[in-house]
Specification:
The structure is a homotetramer of 337-residue chains. Chain A has helices spanning 11-23, 47-54, 107-120, 144-157, 171-177, 191-197, 214-226, 254-261, 270-274, 280-289, 316-332; strands spanning 2-5, 27-32, 37-42, 59-63, 83-85, 88-90, 96-100, 124-126, 161-164, 180-183, 204-207, 232-236, 266-268, 294-298. Chain A is α/β, with parallel strands linked by helices. Chain A folds into 2 domains: 2-63, Phospho-2-dehydro-3-deoxyheptonate aldolase, domain 1 (Alpha-Beta Plaits, 2-Layer Sandwich); 83-332, Aldolase class I (TIM Barrel, Alpha-Beta Barrel), CATH 3.20.20.70. In chain A, a hairpin with a 2-residue loop joins strand 5 (83-85) and strand 6 (88-90). The radius of gyration of chain A is 21 Å and the shape is elongated. Chain C binds chain D through residues 211, 213-215, 239, 241-246, 249-257, 260, 273-274, 278-279, 282-283, 285-291, 325, 328-329, 331-333, and chain D through 211, 213-215, 239, 241-246, 249-257, 260, 273-274, 278-279, 282-283, 285-291, 325, 328-329, 331-333.
Chain lengths: 337, 337, 337, 337
């Protein structure tokens, strides 16, 4: 249930309402808006509790939300969530570009890619040190060594870095190096991992499960918020359908829908979604046109030599070209890039 | 197989090659390009036939295409297909807007809608006289009376009209009134209907089947072309997936893919794809950004009174607003609107 | 709405209720059960009409059904529908086997197949004279000649024949020859075709659309019943999913569900569903175990020479072997075969 | 690559071949069959290595498998895998029944359920102590207390127990109590978890991911085998499709396919697959008819009071009734139960 306080309610009154909510066995989350405070009462909605809260003088109204997510919802927080990672604002007016190779494969090649990506126009560097691979016999990432290389690239370029965490054991080490932690599509419902990431103080980008409904995806984010981490980015990356011409089917319509349901920033990964670099520019344009707050793009200076996902990586020149058009579309819809 | 003639080949030489192709039991389709003529040899590809044709002096090369479609392919016709419907060019530089109510429900309301749509900025008027309905008890369309009303609207607005044909029996009457014939998603593999529409001399817009792969969709168009009708528009309208928040999942990535595989113009119907008017502007922008040649949009002056698909219809004001942004995006990617 | 009459209601009283229903603008369908008569009032359910009908002395109760189908529902007709085709009872205790080649490819080969199938243990002969093919360049069937060959096979074996009708133009000719008319997966929502088949007096087997929900499938059958044809067989044949190891994914759970929702017999086509003969026996056993009333199986004496769907055809020996196990399973669940 | 040794090859010769394989940089897994030994050379297949190995006198042949899985394949191990859990043989002639409530909700209720399930005819007790829940606000399981209750139920009934492990941190504790470890659908591609479970010496049942292809599922099992654990059970539990009448669509055809591709036992979970208890008996019969080696069924003495998945739980009486029919079907296909 969502309790909207009167705009004039002071700390004391808010505290009283919080106490009352807890007395019914609910947990309380608080959101301080510009004009009013909103309290999330976590637990099964009950009409008698609503009535009991609504008669309190400092309460404006109590909403029994019809969907199962609460803290990620627009009802709980009207304004878009925005936060800073270094100098970069996520969820603001400017559309944010995260780019780089799929995996960190070696020091030299990664630093070279980082340089190229920076020059091409990225805000944040991406790269995988721990890779989820369908086959146990495929390259699984350089692990901590990869993280160190990424840190060096950050030093060199000044760009913050994002990388994936695969499991609980490596959370500590990944958090030590990375500026943003990525949760992959196969881990979207790894609930224990989410709970632990809800307790770190770095932003988390959570990819949509390849067969997750929009509601399940928002519920996964709810795990993060309800554990205490409000710096969450949602990332659409394609869903599994009968069409196999593309690796996945990008659900571009999820962008306006999620932005309507939730206050969290929504990113799009057109590289994994399509599986081929040549469709990445069109889908990037489509994503920005549809309202995405940012993109996660694979860029690799020599895709043919990539150990992982080469066919879906843009070369830096194509990446730079694409940015010009993206900037134009951003302006049309009242954003910058 | 596709036979590319020498650029200097004259009618006589082309005729000889055609005769030779037929002698092997193939049908021949001809495409006259700016620089050279291309002949499509319809039938199972055979290497010995390729060799026999390639030794002919006026033949430049013979291509054994790896996909099952031929006449719709870029190998058969390199340049984009464009054709005129009245004053409107389909497949040209300008992005074409087809708009109007889902169904023709009455004279007055349709004429009013047509007026509004024209004012809002449409190139072509849409409307359904024969409606495919899941339930036998739902409104099935005004049939010929609906067509007459659409013809009156054309008279009044000067805009060409597009409407759906549901079955073989009504082809003749629909063709008499309409400027473009629409084949719906449920009829995409109604092969007998396609063969007959391949023999009319009006353009056909063929919607993608809701569970058709891109290849099957192009094969359906191949039925039209191989029966003689080259004025074909492909229209993406959403595919059926596990996600039910939207009515269908729009496959925006199909746009760049089909434009790469085929020379035919590609349109998008965001109204049926999403099922809700409020997501139509975002998806229209995304479609144009991804390279669509046109849109098919439901617009209704009073959606709440619509007998069919009201929830997915834009009101004229929203439609006009959307066009402003569409125009901006079109310019960014080198098109007009 | 469904109007259940008192068990003692006579013709006169039933007639009065029918008249009253019609006075509200509804059509009436009648189902004579063993103990009572049920009237289907076709049109949008209205509570005031229900009330007006319920006060009539011969009416036991009026049900506002919550699903959109009515005549096909168990509420309208409690007992399973069963009917005879020649000597064969469809929908009775005995599980019915329809078998034969996918397409009629020639007189000799078809008669040979028919003989083999009969010997193997089939109740009804299948075969395609009009074939829906993805490619316009594939074999499209022998048309009327194929029907004549099938009729000859019927003469020879004494087995009734089932064949597919592809379009409205050929309904008349197909009905002239066939004992059961098949509507294919791509035509499940060819509503005009369904309406016309609702007016013939031969049974219709309607395959589930490859992307049709169970509800849409029942609505397609509703088109047939509401047009007057109550001899309808539903046939599950696999749905389109992300899994491509099989040609389609057989939805075996649809069997118990449809039998719960509807009184119509439910058949299964494991040949098209799996796309490979070697999985046909397992899936046939599964279908019968789950409650199917019959099977539609492709059997071909020399699958390698088949012009159409050879890889999914059983040879007659495998077919006969399978029947032994099927008989055992049938007995376990209280059926015969 | 798979190296088939001569039937007369002794330890020394096998050792030499192993050494040679390793000299090319491959890992070696060994499978001792009745007639011959098979060596799996793990790594990318190379033709030159095949040739080098095939000339060795004790090598019969070297197979370059075309699918990416190897240790789970029939090429690597021809005979069905069977192993014992207590007195129960998994993968043998007898079909194995695992039954019990979805979650352990309390001591008394679980012990009562265990008693009922045993009486009804189960071989193994199921129950969840750690529950993966879409919502962070739902009941998440009793954790270790639940495991203790399950251990008590094992004591009482003499039946081995199976329960799910959700994350790496709880592997140790779950392994301490359980006889079989279950990996849920959402963890099928939690590769780190799989690697760790590959190192325990208890059997692992791995459910198919709800959107996993058959190949991806077998690759997940390959993670377990290649890490050292060969006691693996595959469990089909329904895939996500457009049909939402059932919770998931059970892919019954996966049973014969996986049994053809792999030597591992295949189980089916009809409770999660359908989501409703009333369809469980039909689907259980179908699964056994199609060749399943066992079932995982939810049984709860009072489903209405269940905290988790009550609607899909059978009451013990229905469960017992079902077993009678299952036994009959098992006999028909040459199995026992």
């Amino acid at each position: 249930m969502i309790v909207v306080m009167d705009s004039g309610a002071g700390e004391e009154e808010i505290g009283e309402v919080e106490k009352r909510i807890k007395s019914f066995g609910y947990d309380v989350h608080r959101s301080n808006g510009v004009n009013c405070t909103i309290l999330g009462a976590i637990g099964y909605p009950r009409e008698d509790v609503r009535d009991a809260l609504e008669v309190m003088p400092s309460v404006e109204k109590v909403v029994l939300v019809s969907h199962p997510f609460m803290l990620v919802s627009r009802e709980f927080k009207k304004d878009k969530t925005a936060f800073k990672v270094g100098e970069v604002e996520i969820g603001g007016e400017k559309i944010v570009l995260m780019a780089g190779p799929c995996a960190v494969e070696g020091r030299e090649s990664y630093l070279q890619a980082a340089e190229a990506v920076k020059k091409g126009g990225a805000d944040i560097l991406r790269g995988g040190a721990y890779k989820p691979r369908t086959s146990p016999y495929s390259f699984q990432g350089l692990e901590e060594e990869g993280l160190k290389i990424m840190a060096e690239a950050r030093e060199m370029t000044g760009l913050p870095i994002i990388t994936e965490v695969l499991d609980q054991h490596s959370i500590e080490i990944v958090v030590r190096y990375a500026d943003i932690i990525q949760v992959g599509t196969r881990n979207m419902q790894n609930f224990k991992l989410l709970r632990e990431l809800g307790q770190i103080n770095k932003p988390v980008l959570i990819k949509r499960g390849m067969s997750a409904t929009i509601e399940e995806w928002l519920m996964a984010a709810e795990y993060l918020l309800s554990s205490g981490n409000y710096q969450v980015i949602l990332c659409e990356r394609g869903i599994r359908t009968f069409e196999t011409y593309t690796r996945y089917t990008m659900d571009i319509s999820a962008i306006p829908i999620v932005k309507e349901l939730s206050h969290l920033p929504v990113f799009v990964d057109p590289s994994h979604g399509t599986g081929k670099w040549k469709w990445v520019p069109s889908m990037s344009l489509a994503a920005v046109a549809a309202g995405a707050d940012g993109l996660l793009v694979e860029v690799h200076p020599s895709p043919k030599e990539a150990l992982c996902d080469g066919p879906q990586s843009l070369v830096p020149e194509k990446y730079s070209q694409m940015i010009g058009s993206l900037r134009g579309v951003a302006q049309i819809i009242g954003r910058t890039l």
